[in-house]
Amino acid sequence: MKLTREQVEEYEVEGFLFIKELFPPDEMSLIRDQIPTVIADEAVGKVWEEDGKTLRTLYGIHFTNQIFRNLVRHPRLLQPGQQLFGNDLYVFRSKIVMKPAFTGGMWGWHQDSAFAQYYEEIPSPKGGNVILFLDEVNEFNSPVYYIAGSHKEGILEAANSSSTTNSSFTLAKETIAKFVDRGGIVAPKGAAGSVLFVHYDTLHGSVGNISPFERSNFVITYSCTEESALSHKKEKPPYLSTSDITPLLPLSENEVVRLLTNSD
Length: 264
Prior knowledge:
There is one protein chain. By secondary structure, the protein is of the alpha+beta class. It has nine helices and eleven strands. The protein has one domain: Sandwich (Jelly Rolls). The strands form two sheets. Strands 1-9-6-11-4-3-2 form a seven-stranded antiparallel beta sheet, with helices on both faces. The longest helix has 11 residues, at 75-85. The protein is globular, with a radius of gyration of 17 Å.
């Protein structure tokens, strides 16, 4: 799937591109059917909310599940990613970010490029996220907030760069206020099957989900092989990143037809 020139220009200006209902309901139903299997898989990395009982994030999905492994090469996701992020892409990370009804926690304002810079020791990470809505995202169930145009100044200094926790990548309030004053806040909303393409440096975050509506996203983080410097000096679980930076190739038309009919 090729993006139009107007779509590419929108991404370059805003730092993200939103396409509603890129995957139809029948395909999304089959994708969602895989989630209980993924949750039960002991090889999948699991992060919990502060209560220790509510799942927050499932990492390494494409390593263990055939359908999600195929999705990272789906031409509706990979080909636009190649247009926007770079020709030679590998999956730096895959995850399902969960916002359970009533209990889903917040994520502070951050840039995903900071994670690649720290964990992979890539000085200037180049890439982005492709986010597939697994549920309807509405104004009530904690849509992700994005600051338009905030990708244009590269990686910004975090509020607490001396820490190595996820909260250390959160940006200072003054920085966020400055960027919001320039570009405003956008919260894309749409049906399951809608897709966001987001620049690595775009500032984003979300509030807690106090609504009765579930909200989960499948997130593929693509990095460019030419910017990679995978040294693996830092100890981390394999599901957080990969040593295989072989450039991905999109699935063929025949493979796409088989994508959601064979999960073996």
